[in-house]
Amino acid sequence: MVAASTTQARPLRVVLVGVPAASVALAAVAAVVGGFGVPDRWRLLLIPGCFAAVALAERFPVKIGPQQKINLGALPCLLAVLLLPPGLGPATAGLSVLAGNRFVRRSWTESVYNAGNVLAAGSLAAITAMAGAVGATTSLAADLRATLAAFLYVVVNLALAVLPPALITGRPYMKLARSAAAATWPALLTLAASAVVIALLFVMAPVVALLPLVVLPLVYRMNRAIEAQAKANEQLEAVLASQRRFLTDVSHQVATPLATIMTNLSILRRANRGAPADNAVADSVAEAERMKRMLGRLRSLAHADEDVPLRRELVDLAELTADVVHAYAAQAATSGVDLVAEIEAHAQVSVDKDLLREAVANLVDNAVRVSPRGGLVTLTVERGSGGPAIAVADHGPGIEEDRLPRLFERFQRSDSGSGLGLAIARRVVERHGGTIKVKTARGAGSTFTIELPG
Q1: Which of 65, 158, 223, 276 is 20 to 30 A from 373, alpha carbon to alpha carbon?
Q2: Which of 327, 416, 317 minimizes the C-alpha distance to 364?
Q3: Sign of CA dihedral 345, 350, 352, 355
Q4: pLDDT tens-digit profile of 100-114?
Q5: Residue 62, SS3 per DSSP
């Protein structure tokens, strides 16, 4: 177990000793109330069966639930509580957990606490079920008590399991308990219901009761597949994190020598060296500028990929689009393209201003590049179906239909551009919980629409 701080050590020791001690007292009460009488002698086979099943479950854990947190080793313990008399069932469950924990070399402290947890939950469940065994009587009331006992078992088990982590981490107990319950309640309800059903089948039709066990190998293999997938996801995330660091490092490292190259090219361009040399320098400057833009986009992409919190602030979309139009006015004029903004609906949204501006700017840059001379690029702030939206429309050649499925993937470039602008835009919009879509037709241009949560 994790070491606790000095201020937490005493309460933790009290819990680690108190729960097992209290569970022994509860077990004694259950034995006095319910006794040791066994309705059917064959049920005594559940004692060695419980020990063997828990040991196997500890050695080859089979877990259930959406988050794979509940071990099926709890099932034989609950069956022992439901099918054996109160004097035997809880003790069998508690001792089998102690033996199973030690079988997989867990510490004595952890093993004893886990056993005490199960013994306490099992004793309370046995007292609730009264004379203990499911099927001891055929009344509906007895079966309902058994059902209530099963659900009480899983609730008490969870409540006691959360105590040590709460003391060790210093987190509020109720907050941690609610978090654990939210993550495990479907599996816990399934476990309790399955235990009651299997217990009744053991009494009414023992051969049929074994049928649910047939799925265990399948569940075990599914567990292994889920674990393998989780490991693969972790490895993929590590690769992506390394890729993001690489993009950031490369863009920073190349920026300085690129700036020096561009400075020297500017000096050469001012020198009168003749037309061929001037053309070569001009071409070099243009390529250096293109590389500079690509490095900037690589930095933007790495930033957009990072999981750091967004620096949200209240942004007026009309002001943001006006800023983008102003920034790209010179590029549009050089290309002979008119760039205008239209405000159809005023909206203020809580966004990371720099990232959203980068996304819109990438759409505008693409639209200006693909538009013919004399064309028009329009930025429109409007009201979408789910919130405020920014639309960027051009009158370019449109987008080929076969490119649309992979249009927003990285490096899916056309004849010009880096192939990163749309990928950056999509990533930024997704991080804000919005959507980006395109409407296009060959020869009629394209309209990209960013829609943000209202």
Answers
A1: 276
A2: 327
A3: negative
A4: 999 999 999 999 999
A5: coil
